[in-house]
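User: Could you go from structure to sequence for me? I need the amino acid at each position, not a summary. Structure tokens:
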């Protein structure tokens, strides 16, 4: 019964993420792109993988609403300053004029933080194809251009989740749209923060397992029992959170180390793969094993409990520790911009 209670605790703690906050709208995935940031760095969709980002479409010599759109982006930059998983991305719709040095001056005008607000340019065909086909927004040269009105384009802001899927559109020229956009961006960022939560849960489980082992060696039975049952509860919460992130937030799409760390050496990729495979295989084994071991202990079948615990503890500890290692290698070793 305690094991069932732990699992229900995990469901209660984690699944509310999917029931409130951001809408369930999904307007499709942004196509892969490779554009140039104002500092000369190449930015792709995979560069932003795992980040929530807000896309705007502007050009620097615009005499129309672009200044208001960028001003609202600047406000979002300030209001989302505590959200490390959120990025702002402005695409120029006038790439032949808006080269990196021009965008750099424009970014300075709006006090853009280059670590959190990207300005992208490229060839005209690349940019227009991306805006029209992926974002499904207007972008074309004005039929009768006059200074400041060289391009007809949408002023909408697009909200993109960590998988690169468009989750909503907002009027970028309307300041009253910002609070809702901010709330939804924060909610998506929290969902994308579940891997960090999972790493914390794994670290907590490993600590409890070690403390429980020390306790039983010293014959502190009550402390040992408390530590092991707490570790089991934390593992249940972790499993629920892990499955929710991968099946609901990620939509079943795997996260590949080569995409998160394209510059990593081959030996490191092979090491990551080995750790991940061993972690996954043993995690499948240890889940029922831990429940069975705890059940034997709670039923005072101590001989059988001790015999199986000699296998359960090292496997469970390895799975918990490597869970932290996998998170660190995937999300921290080569952090994205």
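Assistant: Here is the amino acid at each position, in order:
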């Amino acid at each position: 019964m305690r094991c069932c209670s732990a699992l229900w605790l995990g469901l209660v703690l984690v699944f509310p993420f999917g029931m409130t906050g951001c809408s369930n709208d999904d307007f499709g995935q942004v196509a892969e792109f490779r554009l140039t940031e104002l500092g000369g760095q190449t930015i792709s969709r995979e560069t932003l993988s795992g980040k929530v980002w807000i896309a705007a479409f502007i050009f620097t010599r615009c005499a129309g609403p672009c200044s208001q759109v960028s001003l609202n982006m600047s406000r979002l930059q300030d209001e989302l300053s505590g959200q490390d998983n959120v990025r702002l991305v402005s695409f120029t719709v006038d790439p032949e004029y808006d080269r990196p040095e021009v965008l750099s001056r424009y970014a300075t005008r709006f006090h853009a933080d280059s670590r959190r607000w990207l300005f992208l340019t490229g060839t005209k065909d690349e940019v227009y194809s991306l805006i029209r086909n992926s974002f499904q927004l207007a972008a074309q040269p004005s039929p009768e251009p006059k200074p400041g009105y060289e391009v007809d384009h949408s002023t909408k802001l697009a909200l993109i989740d960590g998988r690169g899927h468009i989750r909503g559109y907002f009027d970028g020229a309307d300041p009253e749209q910002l609070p809702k956009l901010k709330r939804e961006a924060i909610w998506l960022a929290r969902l994308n923060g579940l891997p960090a939560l999972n790493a914390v849960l794994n670290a907590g489980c490993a600590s409890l397992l070690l403390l429980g082992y020390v306790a039983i060696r010293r014959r502190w039975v009550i402390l040992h029992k408390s530590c092991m049952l707490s570790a089991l509860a934390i593992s249940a919460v972790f499993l629920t959170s892990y499955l929710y992130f991968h099946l609901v937030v990620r939509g079943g799409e795997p996260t590949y180390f080569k995409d998160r760390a394209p510059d990593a050496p081959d030996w490191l990729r092979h090491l990551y793969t080995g750790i991940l495979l061993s972690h996954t295989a043993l995690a499948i084994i240890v889940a029922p094993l831990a429940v069975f071991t705890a059940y034997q202990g709670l039923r005072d079948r101590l001989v059988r409990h001790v015999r199986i615990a000699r296998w359960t503890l090292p496997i469970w500890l390895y799975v918990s520790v490597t869970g932290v290692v996998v998170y660190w290698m995937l999300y921290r070793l080569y952090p994205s911009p």
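One structural detail worth keeping in mind: The CA atoms of residues 260 and 335 lie 8 Å apart.
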